[in-house]
């Protein structure tokens, strides 16, 4: 840290140093460790200025994980462009391999269903949730549908005329 930067920092406040920019346009800064005019030591801070600063426009994943690790102090040096590109291509390769494996698995599953090696899953449709008190019971309707022989108490409720 130069003496001039130290003097400027004491006179005008905090000076942040630009460390890097990611492919999304976010800018990353570090505020180096410094002493205030009272002599108190202030720790170094890392910060990001988002490309879209409004909260409602924030999208999960808008900060790359390498930069996130640097911001949170899990790594000492900021990521290089080469490292970011290498990790991005690696993630794309993993996605392609996962897609291939899923397609092979679906093809194998379909083949096993056709050959009769595996029973096809039963298609059941359940109304409501099993924890509900009315689960499995007939729903209450406004129209009376039962006759005298099959009448069940509570199966019909008269309509309220309010």
Automatic annotation (TrEMBL):
This is NADH:ubiquinone oxidoreductase complex assembly factor 2. Belongs to the complex I NDUFA12 subunit family. InterPro entries: ComplexI_NDUFA12 (IPR052618), NDUFA12 (IPR007763). Transmembrane segments: none annotated. Residues 134-162 are annotated as: Disordered. GO terms for biological process: mitochondrial respiratory chain complex I assembly. One of its GO terms (cellular component) is mitochondrion. It comes from the Eukaryota. Residues 143-153 have a biased composition (Polar residues). It comes from Seriola lalandi dorsalis.
């Amino acid at each position: 840290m130069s003496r001039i930067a130290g003097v400027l920092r004491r006179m005008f406040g905090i000076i942040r140093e630009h460390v890097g920019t990611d492919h999304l346009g976010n800018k990353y800064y570090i505020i180096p460790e410094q002493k205030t005019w009272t002599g108190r030591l202030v720790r170094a801070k890392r910060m990001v200025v988002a490309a879209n600063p409004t909260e409602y426009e924030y999208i999960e994943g808008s900060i790359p994980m390498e930069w996130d690790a640097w911001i949170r102090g899990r790594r000492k040096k900021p990521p290089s462009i080469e490292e970011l590109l290498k990790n991005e291509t690696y993630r794309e390769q993993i996605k392609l391999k996962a897609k291939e494996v899923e397609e092979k698995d679906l093809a194998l599953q379909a083949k096993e269903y056709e050959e009769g090696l595996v029973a096809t899953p039963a298609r059941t449709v359940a109304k409501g949730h099993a924890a509900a008190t009315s689960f499995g019971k007939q729903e209450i309707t406004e129209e009376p549908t039962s006759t005298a022989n099959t009448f069940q108490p509570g199966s019909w409720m008269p309509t309220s005329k309010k």
